[in-house]
Amino acid sequence: MKKNSVLLLSGGIGARMQKSIPKQHLLLFGRPIIIHSLERIDKLVDIDKIVITCNKNHIDDLKEMTKVYGFKNEIIIIEGGKSRQESVQKGLMEINTPSVLIHEAARPFVRLKEFEKLIDSKEQNITYGVDIPYTVLMRKGDFITENLNRSSLINIQLPQKFNTQKLKRAHLEAIQNKKTFTEDTSLLLDFFGKKIKIFKGTEFNIKITNPIDYKIAEIIYKDYILNEE
Question: Where are the beta strands (DSSP E) in 26-72?
Answer without folding.
Answer: 27-28, 31-32, 47-54
